[in-house]
Each structure stands twice: as structure tokens, then as C-alpha cells.
Amino acid sequence: MSETQYGRLDRARLRYRRFRQQWYSTPIVLTAIFGALLVLPLTLNLYAFGFSLGTWISVHMLIITLVWATTGQAWNMMSGYTGQFSFGHAAFFGLGAYGTILLLNVVGLNPWLGMLVGAVAAGLYGLVIGVLCFRYDLRGHYFALATLAFAELIRYTFNTVPQLGGASGFYKPLPRTYADGFGLAAFQFEGVLPYYYVILAFLIVVTVVSLVIKQSRLGLYLFAIRENENAAAAVGIPTYRYKLLGTTVSAFFTAWAGAFWAMYFDTIRPETVYDILVNVEVLLPAIVGGIGTVIGPIVGAFIVIPLSEVARILVDLSGFDRIIYGVLLIGIVLYSPKGAVSWPGRFFEVLERNGLYENAIDDGAETDE
Amino acid sequence: MFVDPSIALQLVAFAILLGGIYGLVALGLTMIFGVMDVINFAHGALMVAGMYTVWWLTNEGGLNPFLTIPIAIVVLFVLGLAIHHVTIAPIIEAPQENQLIVTFGVLLILVSAIEIAFSADPQSLDIDLGSIGVAGIYLPEGQLYALVFAVVAVVASWGFLQYTQLGRAIRGTADNRDAAQYVGINVPRIDYLTFGLGAALAGLAGAVIPLFQQINPHLGDAYLINAFVIVVLGGLGSFPGALLGGMIIGFVHVFGQFFLPGSGYQIAIFLIFILVLLLKPEGLLGGETHE
């Protein structure tokens, strides 16, 4: 390799580091991501060099990806920011789904209002869980197990009570039975593309909320609780109240994704929206992408879901996609606990270690980590 | 509510049989939890591996099912060592949720692999064990044998922990990992042994289940969740606690199934769980909570 190439790499590395140090770097990256996502489904059927994206990805796959990106983002606000590891977000996801579809079926409430009711119910349930667990000071394993127990409690309750749909759940009614046919007001559309833009809008809202929280004083408090709760309390942060806030906001937005799920698919049952695996699917994007980061859950979802969907198409074995999930979970936790967002930085580090930076320009940016 | 005494007696018999199985299922979990401070979500999947080892050796290999149970224990011990080596050992010092996530990954891989290998259809052993009638009570023989295995396993494990040098080392590690290291116990090796034994106990619990129940790759889930309840109920790392917790959950399960509609018994179990977590997280027979 020639010397000029080293120089170019050096400059790229420094530019990247300097950029990531700025407060506006995350909003800029997010804007770029969302801009790309806005046009992505429209490019699926474009052929270039005899090749089109549509052969590999479908709008349906993108929708599923964005659903779990939304939940990952919401989970992150509680577990990533405050460090209270929730293994029971299926409860909030399911409450959003059931709030929407149950009220629609039983009293004919518009699904948008039903979604809000479901989200408020999820927020309240999160508040109850939080009050009980934080008052009794459950930490670590005990907290994770308690959240799982609360999620399973809800699942079996819906499974048992016939008024809540029982084991067979609910069908999504036809739009003309409660609105003027398909359209935004009915939360039901002909074709999948409008669904894509609805869930993208949800993701953007959750992401903006997440970003605003993280870059505000509130985010500082939440992260202080994560790093050292006792120290945070000692300097006067009301940790109990802030942990509750994180839990409630997170539950509220997780329910949105659940509501979307209920209106996108034809049926919901306790096994589909309250399953134990849902607890993992909710948090997987955040873990893979990078816990506590705003970009992480989106990047993580775009790694996890397409990978498992493509694997499902290529390997015709029921359960193969879950093996992919398992390998990803283990691989990320063992080898890259900071998640995919740390990969660009790592890429430069590896180059550095291999001695590619003989002419490194030292401008004082080295201290950043 | 009036219940016929013979029905009540029958329910008690069922509850004791099921409680024994539950206790056995919780043993390996409480051991890993107590010594290594790891929530092993793969426990249910290891049980399933035990079930399918017995089922495969019996139906395909033509062995006597009771002969295959010790084989399953050995297979699962080795599998446990391998899993620990690859997944837990490198991150034993990492934050707790990392280990939880990793063991959940192991659960997904194991269960899906078994599903791919043997299909998701329910399977049963080619044997018919029948049942014994005692004083008008009906006792399924398979469950009776399973209970015997459970009792033997509890006594053997308890004796091992109480009276052998290695057992003492394991208990010492459970009490205080750092102090155990200072007095010369090889803690990483104890971790290997503990995880292997925990997996072997899971394998045993799984191995006895085909004696009285149809098996499928997802059967571990239901047992796993209740095993968590039992472990916390009985007290972290406490063997008698696991047995007592198993019996309590066995009674709640059997009587709840009889008197409550649908899966009401499972709701009752979770309510008990949440109450215990909040009011007495150290469990009924547990000592002080570890930090």
C-alpha cells in the first residue's frame, strides 16, 4: 500500500472521531437513516444491472423490522438508560395490541383511540410494576424475574378470561363495520405500503422522544442511575421517581408497536403477542445495536430481522430463524457487548493495532472514548 | 365448597407426585443460581435434551428406558460443560443481564435444533407402565418412578454437597466467591462442575418426564417458568427449599387446576411468585440475600 493511502485513512478516522464528538452527530445520522427509510420501499422494484432489492427484501419484512425497532427503542428508554433490565415487555406490547382490538371488537372504539387506551393501560401497568419492584428494592436477577412474572401473569389472565378473548383471541373486523372503509381513520389499508409509513412514523416519534430524553438533563439523571444508583441518590437525584418515569414512558411506547401489530395482522392471540419469545424480540434490537444508544435499536433491528427472514427463506426449516436469534444473542454479548454502533470505531481501532497508522496526525482527538 | 374425600385424597396424591417432579426440575436451577449467581434460562431446554435422549435411545436404540436415564445424565453433564465453556465462562464477571441473555440464546438454539431434528410433533415412549391402585387412589406408575428418582437425586446431591471435599468447595463458593478464591478453591473449576451438575440434574428431570407424559420440544418452557418460582420460593441455592417449593407449587397446580377455570392455577402461581419476590425475596428457607 502506498503512503497516500495511510494518509487518507488517517484523515477519515479523525474526521469520524471529530464528528461523533459533536452533539449534532446523532440527529444528523438519524435524519439520514429516516430519509433513507422514507424512500427505501419505493426503490425495491427498481432494476439495476439485472438486480433488484426486491428479490431479497419485501415491504412486509421492512414493516416487521420497524415494529421491533420501535419496541427496541422503547425498551431502551427504560432498560438501556436507567439500567433496570426488563424481561417482561411482552406485557406492554400485548396490552397495546389487546387494548386496540378488544375495544374495537367489543365497543366499536376507533383503533386510534383504542391504541391510546391500550398505551395508557400499559403505562399504568408499568407504573404498578415499577412502584412494587422499586419500593421493595428488587435489583438484578430478582427484578428481571419479577418483570417476567408480571408479563406471564397478564398472558395467563388473557388466556383464561373469556371476556378478554380467551385462548383463541380476536379477529380484526373489516374496516367498513366501524369506519368508512379502508383509510387512515380506520387504521386499515389496502396493500402494505401505507402500513409501512405508519410504523415508520411511530418509530420516528419514539426515536425523537428517546433522543430528547437522552440529550436533556433527564437523560443525564437516568444514566447516572444506571452507572451508580447509590451515588446518584447521594447527589440528590430522586432515583425512585426517575426510574418510574423511565418505566412508564417505555411501556407507553411499547404498546404503540403492539397496537400496530394488532391492526397489521388478522388475528391476535395470547400466544402471539404475550409469548415469552416476545420479551426477547422486544429487546433484541437494542442489545444487538447498542444498549443505551439512540441509533442502536434501529441498526440492531435492521441486522436481526432481515438476517432471520432471509435465513428462513434460504433454509426451509421451522425454527432455523430462532437459531439465528440465539447465535446473535450469544455472539453480540460475548464479542461486542457495546453493539453494532461501536463497529465503525472498532474498525479504525483494528487498523491502528495493525500498524496502519504510521503517519497518524495527532490533533488531540485521541482522548475521546 | 364440598369435595368428596376420595377425590381430595386423589388430588393430594397427584399433588405430591407432581410436586416431586417440580422439586427435581428446580434442583439444578437452584444450584447454578446459588453458586454462580446465573439465571439459567437454558434449564428448560436442557430438560428437553434429556427427554429426547431417553426417547431416542429407547425407541430407536431399543434400550430399556430405565437404562437410558443414567446415559441422559452423563450426556447432559458433558453438554453442560460445553455450554459453560463457550458461553458463561468468558463472561462470568460481566453484568448479570449478559448471562441471562446468553442462556436465553442457548435455549433458542437447543430447542430449535431439537425441533429440527425430531419435529415439533408430540412423541411418547413405546412402553406402557400402567398404574397402581392403593386404597381407591390411582397412582400412575410412571410418575411414581419419577418421584423415586427425584428423591434419590435430592438425597444424593445433598450428600455430595454436605459430606465431600468438592461439595464443601461448592458451598464455599456459593457463600462467597472472593473468599473461596482466597482460601485456595479453584473457583473457575467449581463453576464448570456446578454448571455441569446443574445440566445433569436438568437432564435427569427431563429424562423421567417421558415415563408419564408425551414430550415435545417446547415442553421445557412451562416447567422452566414454574422452576423459577420454586427456586425463589424455596430460597436461592437451598436444596430442601427446592423440594418444599416444588411441593407447594405441585399442590397449587393440582388443586388450582381442579377448582379454577382455564389456566387459573398458573395465575395463582404467578401471584404467589410476585408476593414472595416482593415480601421475602430470600425465600422461605433461604438465608440472607446475597448482594
TrEMBL record, chain A:
Pfam families: BPD_transp_2
Alphabetical keyword list: Cell membrane, Membrane, Transmembrane, Transmembrane helix
Signal sequence extent: none
Transmembrane segment boundaries: 21-40, 46-69, 90-107, 113-134, 141-158, 195-213, 244-264, 284-307, 319-337
UniProt-annotated location(s): Cell membrane
Its membrane topology: Multi-pass membrane protein
GO cellular component: plasma membrane
Protein name per Swiss-Prot or TrEMBL: Branched-chain amino acid ABC transporter permease
TrEMBL record, chain B:
Keyword Iron-sulfur: no
One of the record's GO cellular component terms: plasma membrane
Keyword Iron-sulfur belongs to the record: no
One Pfam family this sequence matches: BPD_transp_2
Taxonomic superkingdom: Archaea
InterPro entries, alphabetized: ABC_transp_permease (IPR001851), BCAA_transport_permease (IPR052157)
Topology class, membrane: Multi-pass membrane protein
Entry's Gene Ontology BP terms: amino acid transport
Keyword terms, alphabetized: Amino-acid transport, Cell membrane, Membrane, Transmembrane, Transmembrane helix, Transport
Compartment(s): Cell membrane
Transmembrane residue ranges: 6-31, 38-57, 69-88, 100-120, 144-161, 192-212, 224-251, 258-279
Family the entry assigns: Belongs to the binding-protein-dependent transport system permease family. LivHM subfamily.
Name the UniProt record assigns to this protein: Branched-chain amino acid ABC transporter permease
Organism: Halosolutus amylolyticus
